[in-house]
Amino acid sequence: MYDRILIPTDGSEGAEAAAETGLELAAVHDAAVHVVCVAETGPLDGLRLPGDAESAADALRSRAAEFADRIADRARERGLEVTTATPSGPPGPEILDAAEAVEADLIVMGTRGRSGLQRVALGSVTDHVLRFGDVGVLVESHRDEV
User: Fold this and answer.
1) Cα–Cα distance between 63 and 37 in angstroms, integer?
2) Could you identify which of 27, 39, 42, 121 might form a hypothetical disulfide with 61, taking C-beta atoms 3.0 to 4.6 angstroms apart as the criterion?
3) 97: how many CB neighbours lie within 10 A of its CB?
């Protein structure tokens, strides 16, 4: 039923839980897995960190690669075919671009990543993907433990 599953991540607990669901589905359907983690660099592109030659944007890209690689490693452990991508830009559109590029049959993602004021200021990435995408989306809700 599914040949290519896109799993976006931001390294949050919700994204990690959704990734597990996506990997289980991929194993059942013998689907290829495509992991994407968007480095949301925005105006940080030229900003340098104090005492470091690495720019803030480079640090965000490096972190995005680590998050994507962590899920890719779990996919490989299951014997799944996997690719990763770490584009820079606004997460919602970049996730949809990645889904189109790999011709994804399904996107599996969480509902919680950023929270509080960041979420209000930036909007919901999941909401963007649901509203503007033309591929099926499986959303796994993640609630903080109280």
Assistant:
1) 9
2) 39
3) 15
* pTM assigned to the model: 0.85
- Whether 71 and 43 have beta carbons less than 8 Å apart is answered as no
CATH homologous superfamily of domain 4-140? HUPs (3.40.50.620)
101-to-43, 95, 96, 106, 125 alpha-carbon distances in Å? 26, 10, 9, 13, 18
User: pLDDT tens digits, residue range 67-114?
Assistant: 999 999 999 999 999 999 999 999 999 999 999 999 999 999 988 655
**Contact partners, residue 93, CB within 8 Å, separation at least 6:** 128, 132
Instruction: For residue 118, give both structure tokens.
Output: 């960041």
Q: Hey, is 85 helix, strand or coil?
A: strand
Structure tokens at 100: 């189109």
Query: In whole angstroms, what is the distance from residue 63 CA to residue 80 CA?
Result: 23
Look at the block and give the residue holding tokens 């105006």: 43
Q: Is the dihedral of CA 59, 60, 63, 65 positive or negative?
A: negative
Q: Give the DSSP H or E segment for 19.
A: helix 13-29
The pLDDT tens digits for 16-70 are 999 999 999 999 999 999 999 999 877 655 555 565 556 677 788 899 999 999 9
